[in-house]
Amino acid sequence: MAAAPPRVLTVAGSDSGGGAGIQADLKTMLALGVHGMSVICAVTAQNSLGVQGYWELPPEAVEAQLDSVLDDIGAQAIKTGMLASSVLVETVAAKLAGRGIPVVVDPVGVSKHGDALLARDAVDAVRHKLLPVASLVTPNLWEVELLTGVRVESEADLPRAAEAVKAFGPQWVLIKGGHLPDRPVDLLYDGTDTFTFTAERHDNRHTHGTGCTLASAIASHLALGLALPEAVAASKEYVTGAIAAGFPLGAGIGPVDHAWRTRR
């Protein structure tokens, strides 16, 4: 009998189009050689053109899923994505606190198309309940402004943004600067050490699910035993390849190719 692979749990929303959310998370985990498990917090009606609607699950259903997985199978790392509402943010944060498992928080606020995926009244719960239990939080520039009020307009603004997010209590912060005007730069910060990651800007509009994919890849690499800076570097390499291989699907923004390494 083969040994069980490392286990990674995603706590997020379902994307019916398969490009982001739970679906992207599980594809990423499979591609990186870990066993993916899921707690679904919301169901979206979503395709390449946008999000047509979403429906939250009751908090007791989310809590039951978490108990079911963690009390029996366990996990070496956890990733959170779309949590939708204040009550779900608080439910998930309470369940993850104190478990001693690395938690990668993708503070999903909007979809790639600009559709809201987090209630406005839930932002405070993300700040004060979820971020303090995070081993790493991975906001993009819009999410930085939503959480802290800091507007990032150039690479020079990244350290100030990282400090502002770090003040809410996560161990590490990764500010994703993919939409900076000059070059894509991400900044990783733990209050003392700073690491920067740059990437080529691809002429490819098929980038749906990049944030979910990156956070899931980091959680997977942590479960595989990498230290956090190395996990981020390996995940950036994986996501960069997935973006370069992104393919058209539907009439709008297509997904990245999670299986790009098998197609080379």
TrEMBL record:
<protein>
    <submittedName>
        <fullName>Bifunctional hydroxymethylpyrimidine kinase/phosphomethylpyrimidine kinase</fullName>
    </submittedName>
</protein>
<dbReference type="GO" id="GO:0016301">
    <property type="term" value="F:kinase activity"/>
</dbReference>
<keyword id="KW-0418">Kinase</keyword>
<comment type="pathway">
    <text>Cofactor biosynthesis; thiamine diphosphate biosynthesis; 4-amino-2-methyl-5-diphosphomethylpyrimidine from 5-amino-1-(5-phospho-D-ribosyl)imidazole: step 3/3.</text>
</comment>
<keyword id="KW-0808">Transferase</keyword>
<dbReference type="InterPro" id="IPR004399">
    <property type="entry name" value="HMP/HMP-P_kinase_dom"/>
</dbReference>
<keyword id="KW-0784">Thiamine biosynthesis</keyword>
<dbReference type="InterPro" id="IPR029056">
    <property type="entry name" value="Ribokinase-like"/>
</dbReference>
<feature type="domain" description="Pyridoxamine kinase/Phosphomethylpyrimidine kinase">
    <location>
        <begin position="15"/>
        <end position="257"/>
    </location>
</feature>
<dbReference type="Pfam" id="PF08543">
    <property type="entry name" value="Phos_pyr_kin"/>
</dbReference>
<comment type="function">
    <text>Catalyzes the phosphorylation of hydroxymethylpyrimidine phosphate (HMP-P) to HMP-PP, and of HMP to HMP-P.</text>
</comment>
<dbReference type="InterPro" id="IPR013749">
    <property type="entry name" value="PM/HMP-P_kinase-1"/>
</dbReference>
